[in-house]
Structures are given as C-alpha cells and as structure tokens.
Amino acid sequence: MLERLFTRIGGTSRSVSRWLVGLMVIGFASLVLTGLSAAWLSARTQDHTSWINHTYEVELAISQANTLVEQAETTRRGYILSDQPTYLDIYRRTTAKLPAALQRIGDLTRDNPTQQANLRKMRALIDGLQAQRDRTNALVTAGQLDQARRAFITDTDARQMPAIRALTDEMRRVEERLLAIRDADQQASVQAFYLVLAIAGIILLLVAVASLVTILRYTRDLAASRDTLRDFADSLEELVKERTADLSRANEEIQRFAYIVSHDLRSPLVNVMGFTAELEAATTTIADLIERAEQACPDIVTQEARLAAREDLPEAIGFIRTSTQKMDRLINAILKLSREGRRLIAPEAIDMDALVSAIGETLQHAIKDRGARLVIESPLPDIVSDRLAIEQIFSNLIENAVKYLQPGRPGLVAVRGSRDGARVTYEIEDNGRGIDPRDHQRVFDLFRRSGNQDQPGEGIGLAHVRALAYRLGGIVDVQSDLGKGATFRLSLPARLADAPTR
C-alpha cells in the first residue's frame, strides 16, 4: 500500500509538473508575442512620425517657394509703380532664393512621381513668369515707364499667378492625402497591437487561472497524501527495524553458510590432494617397474602400458593437482570473505599519506622489477575509518595497478584524493593495459577477470575491494579504455560512525 501511495504521489507530481511547465510555456509565449508586437508598433510609430515630419517639410518647402514667388511679384509691381531701385534690389534677392527653394522641393519629393511632375509644371510656369518680369523691369530701368506699364497690363501675368497658386495648392493636397493614408495605416497598426495585447492578456489570465486551479488541486491531493503518510509514520520505523533485523539475520546466515560450505569442501579436497600425492608416488613406482620389465623381458611390456606409465598417468595427476590447488585457493578466498564479513569495524583516524607510503614500500620490489614509479600526490585527505579494511582496499588497488602495467612502456601509478563535504574521493590511476568498457562492472564480480589471463590471481581482489567499500559506506568504480590505463575511484565517508558495525 505504501508503495502504491508513493507511486501515485510521484505520478501526480510528474503530471502536475508537466502541466505547469506547459502553462508556463504558453504564458511565456504570450509575453514574447506581446513584446514583439510592442516592438513592431514602436517601429511603425517611428516610421509614421518620420513620414509626418517629411510631409510637413514638403508642405513648408512648397509654402516657402510660393511665398518667394508672391514676394517677387509684389516687388516687381512696386518697382513699376514707384520706379524706386529699392524694389528692384528686393526683387533680385527674392528671385535668387527661388531656385534653391524649388531644389529643396525636388529633393524631398524624389520618391513621389506625382509631386515631381507638379514640380516640373511649376518650374515651367515660374520660368515664363520670370521672363515677363525681367522684360518689364528692364523697361522701367530704361526709363520707359509707360511702355513697362502697358506691357504689365497686356502680360499673361494675370493667368500665370493663379496657375502657380493652384499648382501649389494641389501639391499640398497630395501631401495631405499621403498623410491621411499614413494616419490610417498607423491607426490600423495601433488597433492590431491592442488586439494582440487583448488576446495575450486573455491567455495570461487563463494560464493564471489554470495554474491556480492546478496548484490548489495538487495541494489538496498532497495534503491527503501527507495524511496518509502520517498514518504510516508510526509503524514505519518499527517496520524498518524488523526488515533490518531480517536482512542482518539473512546476511549472517549467508556468511555462516559460506563458511560451512567452504569448510566442508576442504575436507574432501584434502583427501583428494592426499590421494593425489599417493597416486604420484605409485606412478613413480610403476614407471620404475616398467623400466625394469623392459630391461628383463622387453616383449611383455606393451606400448600402451609404457605410455600410460610414463605420460598419461603423470599428466592426469598433474591436472588433478593443478585443479585441486586452484580449488584450494578459491576456498581460502571464500573463507577470507566470510571472516571479513564477521569482523567488527573499528573506526580510527588514519594518516592516509603514511598508509599509502607504507603500502608502496611493501610493493617496492615489484614496482622496481617493472621499471615503474608510484607517485603519491600529497597531501591525501585523512579519514576516520577501519584501518585494516582501508589497507586491504589500497593494497589490492595499487598491487593490481602495478601487476597490469603495459610492457614496454614506463609504468606510472598515481594516488590522489580530494574532499567534498562529508565525503572523500581517492583515485588510483595507472597507464597500464586498461580494461574494456564492457568489463567495467564484471571485474568487481567474484572470480571474474578481464583481458589476457597472463598474471596470477583468482579474481578475488576487486570483489573483496567492493565488499569492503560497501561495509565502510563507500562505493568504488573504474574508468578505463583498452591501452589507455585505468582509474579506480573510491568514494568514502570522511568519518565513519564511531560505533562498531557488522
């Protein structure tokens, strides 16, 4: 029932998490959409403002040109009526400004074919008007006032000025129409933004409501589950104690069984080894008998008897002896593991630099034979743990590193460590032959080995290391590739419980 409860809580938590994540994604997408819309509207607004300013600049340029035309006409008439040179000077200054004003209109309306066409018409009208004005002004300057006045009356001036005024009005209307179109576009953009904003707001509101409902429902379910867990709390500790006691009893039974089995296996094995020795002695006697029989009466000794006495029997006995010796070593290993499981753990402060250095001194002969070096990257973090177990773990790991170095390459075994909170990690790294990644877990199994079996051993060491590491509250693993060395990583609590443990 408890397992089903945890399963239901876990399933509900995952469902709620997925649902809330989905709602957050939707809400975030809505915010992103709103932000993009705001950025788009801002760009549109800036563009619209720019065009409005452009329209006002065009209208101002048109008004300035029209004003110059009107001022030129006014000063021309004043000059005709008064014959005062001041009017002529003003007229000339005014007409000198007119080309620049027309050029300004042309620059501002370069992208507008309609306004460019209107501007060409205006230039033609102004050019014609300018020629008439210059002729009448020349007559006044020459003192022929009557002729200048008659020419002024008969000129087409009366028709050209209204045409110019009408053309400037048309050009202003063109700009006003463009401004109206741009205002309409801007209004449409604003409406679209408000629509997006409204949709995003509705989505965010729905997301908020759905999230609130989900959280309230999950909180209610969680409260119900907490009540159910509280019902189990009183009996859970007792249940754990009972299960722990059962496991301890089962572990002790397994250890006793391993001890009894290995002890009982040793008795017949001793008998087999004893009888093998007797058979070996008898084989020597039979071989001597065959040799004497060959000397006394060669005909009575067959080839089969000669091969059996001199080759088959010694070979078979050798196989039996090798097998019994291997079986004896395996039984000793099982007994060792069984005794280790029954030994009480005694935590004490351990100087790891000194411990590893002592192990290196005991292996110094093997290290020198292989032309290798043992490097201890001091200081190694000290721990409080069982000294005998730690010595056995590091002895096995360093001895294995030395044993499986790559021939023909200078060997290097490095020991380093670091502390992380309440745990310490030690690494034993070598540049040896390495371990196939497929065998990384297999090498920790009892009686299992990896690679070429050209070194003595029964596949006990790493299994013993893992068992000891587990007893000390730690774990051990390996990282390696073939031909690239191996790194065994041992993680242990920095301080083992002071009370003896089994």
Automatic annotation (TrEMBL):
<dbReference type="InterPro" id="IPR050351">
    <property type="entry name" value="BphY/WalK/GraS-like"/>
</dbReference>
<dbReference type="InterPro" id="IPR003594">
    <property type="entry name" value="HATPase_dom"/>
</dbReference>
<feature type="domain" description="Histidine kinase">
    <location>
        <begin position="260"/>
        <end position="496"/>
    </location>
</feature>
<dbReference type="InterPro" id="IPR007891">
    <property type="entry name" value="CHASE3"/>
</dbReference>
<keyword id="KW-1133">Transmembrane helix</keyword>
<keyword id="KW-0418">Kinase</keyword>
<dbReference type="InterPro" id="IPR036890">
    <property type="entry name" value="HATPase_C_sf"/>
</dbReference>
<keyword id="KW-0472">Membrane</keyword>
<dbReference type="Pfam" id="PF00512">
    <property type="entry name" value="HisKA"/>
</dbReference>
<feature type="transmembrane region" description="Helical">
    <location>
        <begin position="20"/>
        <end position="41"/>
    </location>
</feature>
<protein>
    <recommendedName>
        <fullName>histidine kinase</fullName>
        <ecNumber>2.7.13.3</ecNumber>
    </recommendedName>
</protein>
<dbReference type="Pfam" id="PF02518">
    <property type="entry name" value="HATPase_c"/>
</dbReference>
<keyword id="KW-0808">Transferase</keyword>
<keyword id="KW-0812">Transmembrane</keyword>
<feature type="transmembrane region" description="Helical">
    <location>
        <begin position="192"/>
        <end position="216"/>
    </location>
</feature>
<dbReference type="InterPro" id="IPR005467">
    <property type="entry name" value="His_kinase_dom"/>
</dbReference>
<dbReference type="InterPro" id="IPR003661">
    <property type="entry name" value="HisK_dim/P_dom"/>
</dbReference>
<dbReference type="Pfam" id="PF05227">
    <property type="entry name" value="CHASE3"/>
</dbReference>
<dbReference type="InterPro" id="IPR004358">
    <property type="entry name" value="Sig_transdc_His_kin-like_C"/>
</dbReference>
<dbReference type="InterPro" id="IPR036097">
    <property type="entry name" value="HisK_dim/P_sf"/>
</dbReference>
<keyword id="KW-0597">Phosphoprotein</keyword>
